[in-house]
Design goal:
The complex is a heterodimer of chains A (243) and B (329). Chain A has 2 helices and 13 strands, in the order H-E-E-E-E-E-E-E-E-E-E-H-E-E-E. By secondary structure, chain A is of the alpha+beta class. In chain A, the strands form 3 sheets. Chain A has a 7-stranded mixed β-sheet with strand order 4-3-2-6-11-7-8, with no helix packed on it. In chain A, strands 1-5-13-12 form a 4-stranded mixed β-sheet, with no helix packed on it. A two-stranded antiparallel ribbon of chain A has the order 9-10. Chain B is 37% helix and 19% strand. The chains are: A alpha+beta (243), B alpha+beta (329). Chains A and B meet through loops of A and helix 8 of B.
Chain lengths: 243, 329
């Protein structure tokens, strides 16, 4: 092989390796969940955001991971993501459909509702047959009773909301088995779940705020801290505030 | 003979073309060093991080100022010699002869060894003193105030008043990805706000609920690892009121970079008002907390097991991930 041919071959091989590295970095490491954009759906200084928790993620290759879903405001379908965008200086009315079972909080402090309107969340529980009356709750004791499944916390805004859970053995043994738990299959909507609502104001300045669950819910990982707890799109995400 | 003929005569030591390089270098070096040391100590020193917001921060700033001042003549000497060589000793255009051979000099060697040994030994003495006396070596970080404030039972873990013979106890609890703070002398309430009184000795008890974190109150000059099952102690006394930044300084997961918050130093009166109001406001959640302890292991808490037993849940979808969980790797 001539010298130019060898040089050309070497350069091509080098570029191929570099391109492969860039592809791996972008595709696997830099991959981000889709962002559900609620900004155009705000009216009168308010916007409604709907989230869902599920005991599994059957729409991914991690079916045994718990996860959040975000409702697509355009289609009404729940999308497997934890990234959403809302406008600045707007009241965000959040509804969380909590389809997972209970897990005690690692730190009971996260059982206190903070940073939301009135310092309370409004909770009703569907036990598979009927929906309970809505109650305003300011503090959950997850160590005394089976009452919390996950939390929705935005530390940068001082927001912490425990997501109430179905709280009996029968309810926890009859959790939804396919995710997302509503919209796609009507029968799953009958699984026991909680409906949690609360409101908070977004800051006047824009920015990106991370949110997370403070329940160690990564089953199969050391002390429940890995897996979905440390992966965007499952138990942690970002709220982008558009100024 | 041919070699001798092609090699120009070496200039006299310490001079070049009639100029006494050594003398000039020495004079310039002394002048620049004096000016540089004064600038570093008095002008730059007060602005060296982490500032002087607390005893521990001021100690670190003083140490860095002293080290910077000592290093100044050395840095100036190296740069001056470098510049002088480029300016006056560089090879002239067209001159391709070798430079004069270098011979050993016992006087220069002895001077070099003596000066460097003196510098290193002085730094060792200074560093050892600073480590033991103001910084409290062996007991975490920050000045060690135990002997000023008495040993237990003189120090109380259940009550505190300003200017008393007591330390304000603040427990730092790290978890992925937030710090929370517990005040055992005010009913043991826990909060996400870190508030400290000015001019009062504080003892931080630092621990973690999950993985390894690191509590770094930057402007206070306090930094201590937060390890699960370990109580790491650090001391400080804030000199000034104001805000400070708290960061995690140990890679602890995907959102390690977002694990930060802000604390504040307020007057003793304001602190007491805040502490008492927080104690009352957080009473409902304080009673749910485990009894105050220097470390916590949530996997063995009886309360947690009780919930699991009630529900018969042991894994995802309900249970807590205790060490006996077969899913635990």
């Amino acid at each position: 092989m001539s010298l130019p041919a060898r040089v050309t071959t070497l350069v091509i091989a080098f570029l191929a390796v570099v391109a492969g590295g860039i592809y791996v970095a972008l595709h696997y490491i830099g991959a981000q969940p889709p962002v559900e954009d609620y900004t155009s759906f705000a009216s009168n200084g308010q916007v409604n955001v709907t989230l869902m928790t599920t005991p599994q993620t059957t729409v991914t290759d991690k079916p045994d991971w718990v996860s959040y879903f975000v409702k697509d405001p355009s289609t009404g379908q729940f999308v497997h993501t934890t990234y959403f965008k809302v406008p600045a200086d707007t009241q965000v009315n959040v509804t969380i459909l909590g389809y997972d079972g209970c897990t005690p909080l690692r730190n009971p402090l996260w059982g206190r509702v903070t940073g939301v309107a009135g310092g309370v969340e409004h909770v009703s529980i569907y036990n598979g047959k009927s929906m309970s009356a809505t109650q305003a709750v300011s503090t959950f004791d997850s160590w005394a009773d089976c009452s919390v499944q996950h939390t929705f916390a935005i530390p940068g805004l001082g927001i912490n909301v425990p997501v109430a859970s179905p709280n009996t053995v029968d309810e926890n043994n009859a959790l939804c088995g396919t995710s997302p738990c509503v919209a796609n299959t009507d029968d799953q909507a009958n699984a026991p779940h909680s409906v949690v609502t609360f409101s908070f104001m977004t800051p006047k300045a824009g920015g990106t705020f991370r949110w997370q669950c403070f329940v160690p819910c990564g089953g199969g990982y050391v002390d429940g801290n890995g897996g979905p707890m440390g992966t965007p799109g499952y138990m942690m995400g970002q709220m982008e505030v558009q100024a | 003979m041919a070699a001798e003929a092609s090699t120009p005569a070496a200039p006299a030591a310490g001079s070049s073309g009639g100029r006494r390089d050594g003398l000039w270098l020495l004079i310039i070096w002394i002048v620049l060093s004096v000016v540089g040391c004064l600038l570093v100590y008095f002008v730059w020193g007060p602005h060296i991080p982490p500032g002087d917001m607390s005893t521990s921060a001021a100690n670190q700033q003083f140490d860095l100022t002293v080290l910077g001042t000592i290093a100044t003549p050395v840095v100036i000497g190296v740069l001056l010699y470098f510049g002088w060589a480029i300016a006056f000793w560089r090879q002239k255009p067209g001159d391709e002869t070798d430079a004069a051979p270098i011979h050993g000099s016992a006087r220069i060697s002895a001077l070099w060894i003596t000066v460097t040994a003196v510098i290193v030994l002085c730094l060792a003495v200074f560093g050892t003193y600073e480590l033991i006396e103001p910084a409290g070596s062996g007991s975490g970080q920050g000045p060690q105030p135990i002997f000023q404030h008495g040993l237990p039972p003189a120090a109380s873990d259940t009550s505190w008043t300003p200017n008393s013979n007591n330390l304000l106890q603040v427990q730092v609890i790290a978890q992925q990805w937030a710090f929370t703070y517990r005040y055992p002398q005010f009913g043991g309430f826990e909060t996400t706000d870190l508030v400290l009184p000015v001019g009062q000795a504080v003892q931080f008890n630092v621990t973690s609920l999950d993985v390894i974190h690191d509590f770094w109150a930057y402007q206070l000059g306090v930094k201590a690892d937060a390890n699960p099952g370990v109580n790491n102690i650090a001391y400080t006394t804030a000199y000034h009121t104001g805000g400070f930044t708290v960061r995690c300084d140990e890679l602890c997961g995907i959102w390690h970079g977002a694990m930060y918050d802000y604390g504040s130093v307020v007057s003793a009166t304001d602190f007491m008002n805040w502490a008492h109001s927080s104690e009352i406001k957080l009473a409902s959640v304080t009673k749910m907390l485990p009894p105050y302890a220097l470390t916590y292991d949530p996997t063995v808490l009886a309360q947690v097991g009780k919930v699991n037993e009630q529900l018969g849940l042991t894994s995802a979808g309900g249970g807590y991930y205790n060490p006996a969980d077969p899913e635990q790797p």
